[in-house]
Amino acid sequence: MRDICAIILAAGLSRRMGARNKLLLPIDGVPMIRHVVDVYRAAIDGPIIAVTGHEADAVESALAGSGIQTVFNPDYAQGQPTSVACGLRHAPNDHDILIGLGDQPLLTRDDLHALQTAHGAADPARISIPMSDTQRGNPIVIPATLKARLLEDPRSPGCKKFTRENPDHVQFHALPALGFYADVDTPEAYDRLSPHEASLT
């Protein structure tokens, strides 16, 4: 399997959660962002970069001692593509890249292994995206050879526009695990987590 690193997006404004920053809500007794980072750490050997923005100090404090790199995106309020671009600029050039979200607490190590296996068994020069029916999931795998292409357009950097305008560079993998498709954006979504996963303090 090729060398792989991870970018975890942890910069968003968390508006739909109300007054609380969703990334700091407890999952199994630790902040959500720390739980997600620990899952990635268990699944890959390469570097992990968390891109921070909103309440960066608190998010970085939650990640203290995790052994990963944090980078601050000063343009985080302009949207997720700027955080993707920030992470890509700090990622090693010789690694494939997992780009994931900090609010996917149902994602497991086995899910990440399944995605990496599917990517390696298909065309490793294409971007790999989990798919369930018509729903796209996260994280996705970016081949090292496409990193520069994703940074070419300063008006719309990152993955979303590129994957939709360049379908020949994309492949979808039928991966049914809920963790790929369940992000926690609202209080209701957080409350639906099972009691052993979420515990308000």
Description:
- The strands form three sheets. A five-stranded mixed sheet has the order 5-4-1-6-9, sandwiched between helices.
- About 30% of the residues lie in helices and about 20% in strands.
- With about 200 residues, it is of the alpha/beta class.
- The chain has a single domain (about 5-190), classed as Spore Coat Polysaccharide Biosynthesis Protein SpsA, Chain A, CATH 3.90.550.
Q: Could you list some keywords that capture this structure?
A:
201 residues; alpha/beta; Spore Coat Polysaccharide Biosynthesis Protein SpsA, Chain A; 5-stranded mixed sheet; 3-stranded mixed sheet; 29% helix; 21% strand
In short:
The protein is α/β, with parallel strands linked by helices. 29% of the residues lie in helices and 21% in strands.
Question: Helices, strands, pairings?
Answer:
Layout lengths: L3 E7 L15 E2 L2 E2 H12 L4 E5 L3 H7 L6 E4 L7 H11 L5 E6 L7 H13 L5 E6 L2 E2 L3 E3 L4 H4 L9 H6 L4 E5 L12 H5 L10
Parallel strand pairs: 1-4, 1-6, 4-5, 7-10
Antiparallel strand pairs: 2-3, 6-9, 7-8
Stretches where pLDDT is under 50 for at least 5 consecutive residues are: none
Q: State the total count of DSSP E strands.
A: 10
CATH second-level architecture: Alpha-Beta Complex
Given helix and strand content, the structural type is: alpha/beta
What is the CATH top level name? Answer: Alpha Beta
Please give the domain count: 1
The CATH superfamily appears as Spore Coat Polysaccharide Biosynthesis Protein SpsA, Chain A
Instruction: Estimate percent helicity.
Output: 25-40%
Strand content: 15-25%
